[in-house]
Write a structure and sequence with these properties.
This protein is α/β, with parallel strands linked by helices. It has helices at residues 10-21, 35-43, 53-58, 69-82, 97-103, 149-161, 171-199, 204-208, 211-217, 224-233, 235-257, 261-271, 275-279, 287-296, and strands spanning 2-6, 27-31, 49-50, 62-65, 88-91, 112-117, 138-142, 165-169. Strands 3-2-1-4-5-6-7-8 form an eight-stranded mixed β-sheet, with helices on both faces. α7 (171-199) crosses α11. The longest helix has 29 residues, at 171-199.
Length: 298
């Protein structure tokens, strides 16, 4: 299978590395607006060739669009202009409503399967690509009824093959859910980093920072070029999640100001209720999905 990855960074690069490893791809073409990224991807063996968008798409069985979400919305119509009837196109963006609107009236809309693999790191660029990044994680397929079953089936097969479980949502449901579990945590990390930087009078404070601080603020190292467009495209639900978060921060502040130990412990104990859900993420896939993975990797 000939696969094109448009935007050779963390997600797209990691995805095709896994596809090469399991034999899902026979040839991988790369398209990137930054020539240095393309050359680096060649050097690292992530792609076999770097080509123009038209050259790559016109000869591919599967096209993965993995650019920042604002670029996805701009480039996706052009990608669909170049596809054959059998070419499957997918994206991996963290927002979906705006992206889907950009191609809702395109003649080849049914070739497109909107997806969001819920995995990543704070790093970016070809060097950030990792094998096994998606193992035992969840991907979201959106609005599958608008895509031809043959294209949905290929995407399902691919995601199972690289170790992912699959959830199905509408674009709006996806944007609403990820605003709380993905977009808000990044905003919180950026804000926490800024708060500490604003108060830091001595560099030693970072030498004293514990694992808790480092793990909490890790996401603040994420690329503004990627996350700025996400916050903008998902403005409605990001603001909703922020309002809820600020309300809960205010409750903690009031418990301290009023020296209300009872309220403070109540808030923390209530938060502890999330533990079972988080502890269960390591075994998120059921036995049927695990069997599918074994089947597709034979």
């Amino acid at each position: 299978m000939i696969i094109t990855v448009v935007g050779i960074g963390l997600i797209g690069g990691s995805m095709v590395k896994d596809m090469r490893r399991i034999g899902f791809a026979s040839k991988i073409l790369g398209v990137d607006a930054n020539p240095e990224n393309g050359q680096r991807a060649l050097e690292l063996g992530i792609v076999d060739e770097v080509a123009t968008l038209k050259e790559a798409v016109s000869q591919s069985d599967l096209v993965i669009v993995s650019t920042p979400v604002d670029i996805v919305a701009k480039i996706l119509p052009e990608v669909l202009d170049y596809v054959s009837p059998t070419t499957t196109v997918m994206d991996v963006g963290s927002t979906k409503v705006n992206i889907c609107k950009a191609v809702e009236n395109h003649t080849n809309r049914s070739n497109f399967v909107p997806t969001h693999p819920m995995s990543g790191t704070e790093n970016s660029g070809p060097e950030a690509a990792l094998e096994g990044l998606f193992e035992k994680k969840i991907t979201i397929i959106c609005d599958q009824e608008k895509s031809k079953p043959i294209h949905v089936a290929l995407i399902e097969k691919m995601y199972h093959a690289i170790g992912m479980g699959i959830a199905y949502m509408s674009s709006d449901e996806q944007d609403h859910t990820t605003a709380h579990v993905s977009h808000l945590p990044h905003i919180a990390a950026f804000a926490l980093a800024n708060a500490v930087l604003a108060k830091n009078e001595r560099d030693i404070i970072f030498d004293l920072a514990s694992g808790g601080f480092r793990s909490t603020v890790r996401l603040a190292k994420s690329s503004p070029k990627m996350w700025g467009p996400i916050f903008k495209q998902n403005e409605k639900y990001v603001l909703e999640s922020l309002d809820v978060y600020i309300d809960h921060l205010q409750q903690f502040r009031e418990s301290i100001v009023k020296e209300d130990q009872s309220l403070m412990y109540e808030l923390m104990e209530n938060a502890n209720r999330i533990r079972p859900a988080l502890d269960g993420t390591a075994s998120v896939m059921n036995k049927k999905e695990e069997q599918n993975i074994k089947l597709y990797t034979k």
